[in-house]
Amino acid sequence: MQPFDYIVPHNFAEASALLMAGNDDTRPLLGGTDLLIRVRGGFIRPERIIDLKQLPGMCDIVRSAEGWLVIGAACTMNQVAGHPLVRQEYELLAQACESVASYQLRNRATVGGNCCNASPAADSAPALYCLEAVMEAYGPSGVRRIPIHEFFTGPRCNALRPGEFLTGIHLPPVPSRSAGAFNKLGRTKIGDISIVSVAVWAEAGSRKLEAGGQSKHPERVDGATRTAADGQSKDAERLTWRIAIGAAGPTPLRAPEAEAALAEDASPEGVARAAQLAAEAARPIDDIRASAAYRRGMVAVLARRGVNSVLARLGAAPSVVGGQP
Amino acid sequence: MSQPAGKRTVIGASPPRIEGREKVTGAATYVDDMQFGPSLLHGALKRSPIAHGRIVRIDASRARALPGVRVVVTGEDFPGLTGLYLKDRRIFALDRVRSVGEAVAGVAADTPEIAAQALDLIEVEYEELPGVFDPEYGASPEAPIIHPELASYEVVPFVFPQPGTNISNWFKVRKGDMAQGWAEADLVYEHKYRVPHVQHVPLETHVCVAQQNVNGKITLWSSSQSPFAQRNLIAKALHIDHSRLRVITPYVGGGFGSKAGVSMEGAAVALAMHAKGRPVKLRMTREEEFHTTFVRQGLVAILKMGMTKDGRITAMHNRFYWDGGASTEYGVNITRAAGYSGTGPYYVPNIHVDSYCVYTNHPVGGAMRGFGMPEIHFGIEQHIDEMAHRLGLDPVEVRLKNCLKDGDETLTGMPMHPTGLSECIRKAAAAINWGQETVSYSSTKRHGKGLAAMWKAPAMPPNPGSSALVRLNEDGTATVSIGGVDIGQGALTAMAQFAAEGIGIRVEDVRVNTVDTDYSPYEWQTVASRLTWSMGNAVLRAADAARTQVLQAVAEAWDEDISDLDIVDGQVISYRSEESIPLKNICIDGVQRKDGTFVGGPVVAQGRFMPDYVTPLDPETGQGPRAVVHFTTGCQAVEVEVDTETGEVQVLKIVSAYDVGKAINPELVRTQMEGGAVQGLSTALLEGLILDHGVPRNPNFTDYRIATAVDAPLETENIIVEVPQDDGPFGARGVGEHPMVPTAPAIANAIYNAVGVRLDSMPLTSEKVWAALQNNDI
């Protein structure tokens, strides 16, 4: 492996300056499970590696004053999947994280790194797309927030600018009546890179996000007011659906037509139609793992299975699934 | 054997592995654990990036000038040819490269980093040549010739290269009357099957350390299945006296055939010869392991069979095109084995078999668990299944009708020895509840059952030898020296059992040494599932000789007849006088006579074994009285669940039934069956080296997937059948390779049974099942 300098910056500004100065010769390090393999394989030959894990907050999971969940960029897959708040409210993300590689690797791999590496097959990404995550970056011009669907810009390409690095992943609060399902198809039953993956999410009501990523809905500030608000809200009867597809396009993809169709009709026929629309939203390629045709076919199967599983969970426990009672 | 009857206490018991504690605690020492101090040099190999080309120029001057680089060698330094059966390989390419990854130069440097840097500084200019990437094309007259010098290569007498072509061996069987065979058939069916290259993926990659001392003697510490074959081949290739090359093999972290013969070890020795006494370590990365040591050869099989409407096989015309790779020094014999086994385990009256070993610009093929048998059975066992279905017959009944029985003539004209094949088929079928409808619990999950039979003979020269030494120690324990290697199969434990049984001591009181060619007696190779049978015979004879030495001394001292004496649990006893004496009192110092003098002395005994009855076969017809030493036969039956929407296959159960002659250690035999079933499943469903114009696209565990614990069958059942082998120790024959031979076709047959699609190329991926289902409404 090509030798490199390993640098631990003392603060955000120093980290940014190091990344800015180094350009392509300098790479940020989170878990390193993608980075070091690429260095060892000779695909990249960085001169310097900047370890961001020790900066404040990078390994923390906290609830913000606004009720958002903030996951530090260097939190490991196992840390995220095992966190009580994630398990209670964002269990979809836990499912996705737990599908990555092996337990040992998930002790090292980070959710932030999974996104920054920007593989179309990043398994945490479809879940984060469904949860409408907002990525927070620090850079020369300060803090910047980027919606997840703008963060992924192409295979191994993200929206970070020179000198910028990911600091955290912000998840908006979820309504109590919500559920998600993550399904992935690999060659082996565990540990494989996804041939395709599909995350499905449904929640009661609809909401709009401000440009800054904050919710307008006051009832979602904390769990105590949520249940009451859901009972009053008229659109609580109506489900908002989100479907995100992994490994079947240059980036993870949402399937808006499928989502809209489901909101209108979630009968078995409607679900089948939505699954088909999801498959049409995919933009898969042939590679050594699978053909484009198989991937497209599997998007439909996994989408249908995901929707049915979400419907079953919402039907089974209407007011507690996905949120605190 | 002169074993007294009725005292078999250790044979057929299942003592735990004698080296198990060391291995599971991490205390066991492997080559990479050995410490050589600061003088150790790190070797690395410069490899060809192209599949086929002429080397125009190699300039290593910049590498030589790099500080810390101690040795740089190229093909010009070691131009000799080497190889096990056909000398068609060099340690470093000389004027032509024939596969991506072929070594063109080697360096040894103070650190691995400097060695890697030095490789980058070696400049090699190639003139690319057209390549051969398919064995059928390679065998055709249009194909470019990869080894123009084939006619001049040294070859063993039972391999038949075809100079002027890419065919390095052509094994033929011509028997009976084909026209009559087709005329008698009610159904004639022809189909083509494909098996990709796979890799052995041992946990421990190839690693060795070589060092030359001041007298010129070279020591090679090597993770090997074949310390003696390595000594022989490397000594000849580098013109070293055999006695001046010492190969030491400590514990080995898996081989599966990849560590048979020689692959990268010659390069380490070559580097050491220029390293001025410093040891040189060469260790393959996982990426190198995937394509530069050995791979299992690819196969294209075109099978044509005739069958009567009551299920009798009337004729077979089978053509095997083996994708042998850039060198076929080992692969030629796989081709031969496929030829003399080319009907599968069936009696067939009219036979035409051609097995071609074809040079391609692919990785070098070598031995892998099964040695050609998993590959040929993939087609044969599906073909028979398909024909049975087409004729409306039960595939199990068809197999029972045609399978070889005692005295049936095999395809090469050898009468079949007593075999439990029919019993294996019946027992496997019964254990899977053959004929009983399976219940599918979901509309998208279909269950199915499939079965496949197999045979395999040890594939080797006619006369590979085994030898063993038994020494008794002052405390009455025994030290056994052998030249075979425990690669996970449990050979050390089985040999301890033979020695304990032969001497008359407890198995816990036997130590078995790992191999050091300076001190261990000769063994050909740890291959062909031959150790229990061949080395077992040698150990048993040595143990028997040790026992005889003891008893002769006691008989003389006590003035008794040797036939009245015995050794039981370390005590010498007389059944006549009822005297007894502990073995430890006499096995070094001898026995005291009544007059106070002594007789006997340190007990050291030897034993050896070599088959002396295997005959040559006619090169035109493949016929001869005795093609092989014996065949181990068996059968697997599987139940699968197929997801009709995704094509995923879950193997629910694998039943294995094999005729092992005699299970020396039944627990180890069952472990072999279970491990073979999982490895067979892995190759069936997942594995395949993807080669794009010779460039491996998945030489890593990210994209070359092997079965994990959760992909293993939910249940296995392992059935031991024992029809004794006449020249096996206690009747034993080998079973190491056999359990993965029929797994892939059994699974393919079960998939057919579940969803009605027939897959003729491995691996049987979810996508292939799904794609077939798209064209086949069920």
What characteristics describe this protein?
heterodimer, A: about 325 residues, alpha+beta, Uridine Diphospho-n-acetylenolpyruvylglucosamine Reductase, domain 2, Uridine Diphospho-n-acetylenolpyruvylglucosamine Reductase, domain 3, 2 domains, four-stranded antiparallel beta sheet, about 20% strand, globular, disordered C terminus, B: about 775 residues, Aldehyde Oxidoreductase, domain 4, Aldehyde Oxidoreductase, domain 3, 3 domains, eight-stranded mixed beta sheet, five-stranded mixed beta sheet, 17 helices
Topology:
The complex is a heterodimer of chains A (325) and B (778).
Chain A: E1 5-7, H1 12-22, E2 26-29, H2 35-40, E3 48-51, E4 61-63, E5 69-72, H3 77-82, H4 84-89, H5 91-98, H6 103-106, H7 111-117, H8 124-130, E6 134-139, E7 142-147, H9 148-151, E8 152-154, E9 157-158, E10 165-171, E11 178-185, E12 196-204, H10 223-232, E13 239-246, E14 253-254, H11 256-264, H12 268-281, H13 292-316
Parallel strand pairs in A: 1-3, 2-3
Antiparallel strand pairs in A: 4-5, 5-10, 6-7, 6-10, 8-9, 11-12, 12-13, 13-14
Helix pairs in contact in A: 5-8, 11-12, 12-13
Chain B: H1 20-25, E1 41-47, E2 53-59, H2 61-65, E3 69-74, E4 96-97, E5 103-109, H3 112-121, E6 123-128, H4 135-138, E7 167-175, H5 178-184, E8 187-195, E9 207-212, E10 218-222, H6 227-238, E11 245-249, H7 265-272, E12 280-283, H8 286-292, E13 298-307, E14 313-325, H9 331-340, E15 350-359, H10 373-390, H11 395-402, H12 421-431, E16 445-456, E17 466-472, E18 478-482, H13 491-503, E19 510-512, E20 515-516, H14 531-558, E21 565-568, E22 571-574, E23 580-582, E24 591-592, E25 598-599, E26 604-609, E27 632-643, E28 649-659, H15 666-685, E29 691-692, E30 695-696, E31 715-721, H16 743-755, H17 766-774
Helix pairs in contact in B: 6-7, 10-16, 13-14, 15-16
